[in-house]
Amino acid sequence: MSTVRQRLRAARNMRALVDREALIADLAKITAEHRGQSRERHAAVVARLKKALADGRAIARAWLNEDGAGTACAERLSALMDAVVQALHHHVVTDLYPLANPSSGERVCVIAVGGYGRGTMAPGSDVDLLFLVPFKATAWAESVVEAMLYVLWDMGLKIGHSRRSIDECIRLSRADMTIRTAVLESRFIAGDENLFEEKVRRFDEEVAAGTAAEFASAKLAERDERIGKAGGSRYLVEPNVKEGKGALRDLNTLFWIGKYVYRVRDVGDLVDAGLFSAAELRLFRKCEDFLWAVRCHLHFITGRAEDRLSFDLQREIAVALGYTEHPGLRDVERFMKHYFLVAKDVGDLTAIVCHALEARHQKPKPRLDRFLTRFRKSNRRAAPENGAFVIDGDRLNVHDDQVFARDPVNLIRFFKIMDAHELAGHPAAARLITKSLKLLDGKLRDDAEANQLFLEILTSKRSPEKILRRMNETGVLGRFIPDFGRIVAMMQFNMYHHYTVDEHLLRSIGMLSEIEARQAADQHPLANELMPTLRDRVVLYVALFLHDIAKGRPEDHSIAGARIARRLCPRLGLGAAQTDTVAWLIEQHLTMSIIAQSRDLSDRRTIEDFAKIVQSPERLKMLLILTIADIKAVGPGVWNGWKGQLLRTLYWETELVLTGGHSAGDRRSLVDASKAELRERLPDWSDTEFAAYAERHYAPYWLKTEPERAERQARFAVKAAAAGETLATDVSTDAFRGVTEVTVLAPDHPRLLSTIAGACVAAGANIVDAHINTTTDGFALDTIFIGRAFPQDEDELRRAARVAEAVERSLRGEIKLFEMVAKRQEAGAKSKVRAFEIEPEVTITNAWSDRHTVIELVGLDRPGLLYELTDALSKLNLNIASAHVATFGERAVDVFYVTDLTGAKIANANRQAAVRTRMKSVLENGSRKGRSAAH
């Protein structure tokens, strides 16, 4: 803590926060003024205490803004609540229910338990109270408790309360671990203090004695369950400051175990108990102070008990805590990087306790002195391959505390042995590694053996992600690869990436390992098939490990990352050709995903241009596998079957070009082949019927429509014609791709796609792609792909039928589409997407297609965006040949292949400028709406 902050904190006078004696006097005065008027008196007491609480919280907030002391703020708020409860208790037992000669049974002790019992509170925290009585509660005690609770409830506080005798506390503490923990955290507030002391004595003697192992085991299991529910990783980009991994609850768990096992009252006593060193205690308090500052700011800003650090709050918290922008990193990203580094420190501190207890099978000794016991001789045997290490209780440990000093390469060799023999690391070894990080200098980084060992870890066929994560947690990875160290705990302020950059990179290695192990074949069968055919798997692992390593720099991270790879790969022992391939993969690691999701894959120019970038089938295979691993590592739900199908289509089409397959000259033969295949699928049709139907479609339809869909659409169109319907819809599901298809047959007109898009918005459906086809007789046969909402086909088909009905009603003019879309947009106006700002981009080019002008639009995603864009394009008298919709978190990338009404490209510069201006205004309108909604 800075000297200024220390002085500010020391100068704070709790009397300025709340004057308890003055508050007690005010309540006595209110009682005197309202004698015989219980309702009026109660209302006046509630109002006075509410004002005291509000005034005190306002002062505490001002102090927090000035000194930034989070733990002090939490302690001030707890002390403020103490004063309110104490004044209320005095009022009740003195003014309302005084006793001249109380019996031994007419005693009540008010005790703070749970979080409040620790003496720290956030503004929106629950107030957990235990009303302790000696035996069975008397009528007087019941009246006191009831009177206090009614006032606290009417003040709008969230009260957790119980009324128990000492015997009940002991009995319930034995039976219920949650109650035991609450009682452990108890703190005297008001009333008969002898009752409190008796409860503490009996709890120590009758509950805690001899049950340390049981308690520690239960708390560790409880922690694992909580973290699993909170998301499992401490690097989620919207962390929970209270319940998340590396958050306040982990510090609480740590202290609960320490307090219970070592029978201490204050966290500072854990140094004397031998659990923490003085430096670790300082780290504990530093982490606690930061997390409490964040949590208190969260509650103050939102006005409620909000513990999730969501995107829409992160920037405001960053500003409140004084973070500023640096080149390549925004203020909010610097704040969140600090948050994740603190979460990592909390994890390290928790591991000291958790691992030590696990190593002793949850049977901690009265005094855990790791300095004396970590190199004990019992239960140790020599580790294979190297005399520097031993296997200690089925964990890899160091032989002595000079292992790394004697040979710094052992800092890498340790993890290689962990991987080779699938051993867990011993906590004593992990702590010694952390203390030895200074040995990771330039000399070690250039050591050929160290680099070879690291490369073997990275490309292991066992569990490279697991070992790399252990290296990262100990700090070795960031020191050995300094460029990796720069992105440790780095958060990207967007909704697309679910994890910090380092966590994303480690998870991507895990995904690649999963593919190589032939797992999850139902999600990416082609990648699993191609992986064993690679000539050099090492190149792919290195490229994936480095693909985002240049994030957070002012320049394009793909280009900067390729430059880092050219410097680093030779150090790792890769040859010139391998280095070139790694650099190319990093530079192009986004290309395949972008083209697959936002280009017309049936347009020959798309495939040919991509083939020119890739140049070889081997690079194409590696880029496909890298792209899949990268997308899957972004976060849960980001990868889906639709993206997989797009990537597979792009792969197969490009491979044909690279291996000398069909070219543009084969267009006619491909059309004929598609027709022939459809003919085989319709054996019940006569040649005349088929010829008449085939003549309704232009060549592009045959080139881009898959046989199964072509058959389904043929039967649908003929059935509609037989029924005399000029407007009809058909729905089908595709569980593998994760989409549902809505096919629309309607008379063609420029506003058709816009109307369909609006109807989908009104029905709550999310369009992911659109295939648009015009027939020779003036109809449109459009297929809209919407994101799947239900796992079961019958449920999804019912939903799709409702969407189709909305489309038909819209096209008939039975729905006021504009109003319905506006309602959807209004409902989504407070979405957390509004926390972001994206500069709208409009790209108009004739270079991406031989037949169409391509318009690429990038902006802030919002409900109804596709409807607004297609509506604007139709008003510009542009025909949309295909639409490709992609969203990357809050960022929407919509691409349209268009022509003018004569079927020609938009070549005139003035016309392009008009289109650009109009489309940019649509995107900017959404940004303005977002900003106004946010404010």
From TrEMBL:
The free-text function statement in the UniProt record for this protein reads: Modifies, by uridylylation and deuridylylation, the PII regulatory proteins (GlnB and homologs), in response to the nitrogen status of the cell that GlnD senses through the glutamine level. Under low glutamine levels, catalyzes the conversion of the PII proteins and UTP to PII-UMP and PPi, while under higher glutamine levels, GlnD hydrolyzes PII-UMP to PII and UMP (deuridylylation). Thus, controls uridylylation state and activity of the PII proteins, and plays an important role in the regulation of nitrogen metabolism.
Question: Which InterPro entries does the annotation name?
Answer: ACT-like_dom_sf, ACT_dom, HD/PDEase_dom, HD_domain, NT_sf, PII_UdlTrfase/GS_AdlTrfase, Polymerase_NTP_transf_dom, UTase/UR
Highest rank taxon of the organism:
Bacteria
Its domain description in UniProt is:
Has four distinct domains: an N-terminal nucleotidyltransferase (NT) domain responsible for UTase activity, a central HD domain that encodes UR activity, and two C-terminal ACT domains that seem to have a role in glutamine sensing.
Q: Where is this region: Uridylyltransferase?
A: 1-384
* Family in the record: Belongs to the GlnD family.
Q: What is its EC number?
A: 2.7.7.59, 3.1.4.-
Q: What is this protein called?
A: Bifunctional uridylyltransferase/uridylyl-removing enzyme
Needed cofactors, names only, are: Mg(2+)
Q: Which GO terms describe its molecular function?
A: [protein-PII] uridylyltransferase activity; phosphoric diester hydrolase activity
Catalytic activity line of the entry: [protein-PII]-L-tyrosine + UTP = [protein-PII]-uridylyl-L-tyrosine + diphosphate; [protein-PII]-uridylyl-L-tyrosine + H2O = [protein-PII]-L-tyrosine + UMP + H(+)
Extract one GO BP annotation from the record: regulation of nitrogen utilization
* Ranges where the HD domain occurs: 501-623
Q: Which UniProt keywords apply?
A: Hydrolase, Magnesium, Multifunctional enzyme, Nucleotidyltransferase, Repeat, Transferase
Q: Which NCBIfam families match?
A: PRK05092.1 (NF003467), UTase_glnD (TIGR01693)
- Where does the ACT domain lie? 741-812, 854-935
